[in-house]
Amino acid sequence: MPSVRVKPDPVSHLDERQRAELFDVLDEFAACFSDKTGSCVVVTHRIVTTPQFVPKQMRPYRVPVAFRSEVNRQIRELLDMGSYARQSVRWRAPSSVSPRSPAACASPATTGT
């Protein structure tokens, strides 16, 4: 059940009644929650460009040492799940790493490449 996996710190500001209500909702809609990253198939989109459009080249930069192990772990996880594939294309963007305190979020910071 999702409520069993919730750590106490992120919900410590709630009183006992509010925590019980939250856990009831989490358990009632357990099918909507997962520890794994998923994808949204509700909406599709496409980016239309002109034939003369050239993507902006961004200079790559190093991930700070403090974040490297987490960034590598998340990239491996995405590769293993098939949500991400190594590609050699002109569209590139630097990684975005958002550090968060453990109390601010129960899941690790997200990254994108």
What do these coordinates show?
By secondary structure, the chain is mainly α. Helix content is 27%, strand content 0%. The protein has helices spanning 16-28, 65-81. It starts with 15 loop residues before the first helix and ends in a 32-residue tail after the last helix. Residues 104-113 have low confidence and may be disordered.
Summary of the model, kept short:
With 113 residues, the chain is an all-alpha fold.
Q: Characteristics of this structure?
A:
single chain; 113 residues; mainly alpha; 2 helices; 27% helix; elongated; disordered C terminus
Q: Estimate the helix proportion, in percent.
A: 25-40%
Any idea what the shape is? elongated
Low-pLDDT stretches are: 104-113
- Structural class based on helices, strands and sheet pairing: mainly alpha
Query: How many E strands?
Result: 0
Q: Which helices and strands appear, and what pairs or packs with what?
A:
Layout: H1 16-28, H2 65-81
